[in-house]
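Sanity check

After download, print the first record. It should look like this:
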Amino acid sequence: MTANPLSSFAVGSESLRTITSQVRGRLVQAHISANQGMVATDYTPSSISVPCPDPITGNFLNGTTKFRVTLRRGSVGKLGSLSLRFRMNIANAPVLLAPVPHWFNRIEVLSGSDGKVHATLHGDTLLANILMGTSETQWPIISKMINISSRNEYTQLGPKNVMQPGDYIFTLPILGSFIGSLDCWLGSKGEDVFFDIYPLGDPTISGTAANVTVTGIDMLINSVDAEAKDEEKHYKVAKASYFLNPIALETAKTKALVAGSDNLFDLNQVRGKAAFMVLMVRDSGAYNPGGGRLKLWNLGDSVGATIDIQESNGTSIIGGGTPIYTEHIRGMRWIENFKSAYGANKALYVIPLCHDIQTAFRGVSDGFLSLNGDSKRLVVHLPAAPTAEVQTVTLSGQPASGFYRFIFRGELSAPLAYNATTAQMAAAFNGLGVCLAKTITAAFSAAVSAGTSVVATFSHPETRGLEGDLIQIVENSMATSGAAAVSATTALTTAGTSGVPSGTYDVYAYFYCWKTATVKDGDLDTMDVPV
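Expected structure tokens:
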């Protein structure tokens, strides 16, 4: 069966498929499943580029300026895919940039007549949807487009290498493209559609933000032109379409979480038939500098964290009467639904409420959970507070000359002088790509030059401990004042455990609920599927 285009892609607090149905009389699907009566038509491929007319330059970085790209009425027939292209210059000194979706607070899609916001696309949920829809074979190319590391494990969500001064181009897919088949018919009855881009402010993880300038923004559109007679045909069949719309659990955005307890979320504000749910936990107010937005907290997979949805009386709904272990959600349940290992490498929790999520993305409802304001609740059980991993490096003597390097998970650090400070040691280790990708950091108790044991204490919100991997000193030319070689050995002192310490966090929870399209007087509208 041909994939239902209206349900092949979702992102942000509103589904991008909502664009195809909520922008009245403008965006209508051009292809549907064969059993819905699609007829063959002839198309002519075309491609256009729409520039952002606003001056970009340094204003992109201040976090307050809005940039608008306008898609004019009649400029596109059938919209196959839409992406944003960003032209960028780095001057004076190198910087490390965050992945492209993390450059934005939001992207809003508005109608031209009344300014109504039809979809709000948040950067982190856009990134999550890209990763859920991306296969292993696609990842090496896609990672370059959106500036995500592809070294070692293709699903690592870390920044790419430090970028030297020069000109760069990055692309952010918004509609269709590799994510799924999303064909939208704008047609001659439509009106202008606006895309308002709200930058987050600082796209840099490290380096000077003032050295980064966005010199231009373009909207890239792949489309086809069709005969006008086809438009009415597509209006008639659009009402048979079903698609998924993610509804945000707004009360969960800032939440006090308690380790060793059940943490409850009221679901009364979510109404609809939900096919699945996505849950992410970040530090409160996380920002790009320092890599804060890259960090998703592991709820405690290795020590018994669970997720459940319950009736008001505490009866479990989704786990066959018992909560579901988060380790199972990120392991078996992930690979049953997606063609990547991303779920095992990043703490993105996707909870199926249907038989198969991929089938749901294609517009086929094979199961759902009805949420209708009857006091159901989401319950996240956190185990005891996590334990930091501690490793001890023991030196055979006190070095007085030479250099050394750290090696961790097969990656070498830059050379460090024998008398490097603890801050320099931490910068070298924490800057390793394998550490940035997993947001692993270490603090050191003493400089190597002290000649005593050096205790490395790790912080790693996304991992289950370091799984036996030790930090080691290699390529070592250090020697004592008496010219004796200095060696180093590392031992595990305390094994780390995953989990979330008690505190306040940003919790992102989205329920993907079914909607249907309807047509009245030639205009396309949507409604929730009744529960």
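If your output differs, re-run the checksum step. Summary of this record's structure: The radius of gyration is 25 Å.
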